[in-house]
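Notes from the 1:1 (GR / supervisor)

We went over the backlog. Supervisor wanted to see one worked example end to end before approving the batch request, so GR pasted a single chain during the call. The sequence is below; no edits were made to it. Supervisor asked that the structure be written out right there so they could see what the output format looks like.
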Amino acid sequence: MRRAGDPRKNVAGNLAETRGVSDPEPAPVEARPVAAPYRRNAAPVGKVFFDSPDGPQTCSGTVVQDPARPGRSNLVWTAGHCVHAGREGGWFRNLVFVPSFNDKALTANALERASAGQMAPFGTWWADWAATSDQWIDDGTSEGGNGAAFDFAVLHVVPAPGSGARSLEETVGAALPVAFNGPPVQDVNLVGAWGYPAAPPFDGATMHSCAGKPGRLSLKDREPTLYRVGCTMTGGSSGGGWFAVGTDGRTALVSNTSVGPDPSVWLAGPYLGDTAKAVLDKVSLRFGSRG
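Structure output shown during the call:
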């Protein structure tokens, strides 16, 4: 974890030729540190670590509910580009999820000397399966925003050996529902984007968030419109959940950080429709009652 470098970034690049419906670019919103302890204020959020051809990298992720295992989920939602390189490569290796990473929000220097319990209060969870969309695998790139409308992924994780038989959801104490086929972007009043930005000026040690009314971003006229909010979070926040309160009063995951410009002034994430649901269902059904 300490060797994980600046993460891969899906950089939007020049969007002058964007087709479809896009709202004006939002004003930058400064990312705010999330109050510690994270286990109390944002328990389902954590960091994803993985090995890529460029070395150890980091993303963010969220514990989500598993329809096949109510109350006992072992599923983590993140971005497609945090598990697979898209058309530029293949699957990444040694994927690990650490919920409530750095629970007490220690500085990067203090974290270097932290115990395993301070760094990973709920333990280290290894992914034994990952799934993303065919569209991301076929079209996704690290620059230009290609594949961003389908840039989501689901991990199935297991505890480290000797950690016991409790599920991730039971261990963390929470898992968020995923709001598939929710209202269109323009009908959502407020979303919050959460994650661990790691590229400068951030260092990946602490959790941050941004909140605001989302606008629309269309990268290709035949693909779903993305959510977009003003936010200064950088690489490392990729895969972090976007949360909104539904008409039932419950907080749900409605998107994940996928793409942003350089310098970082906004973030965009995919609308979670039938393709996203199929990715989660595929992992859920694969493991079923086995956990």
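Supervisor's comment: Confidence is low (pLDDT under 50) at residues 12-19.
Batch request approved.
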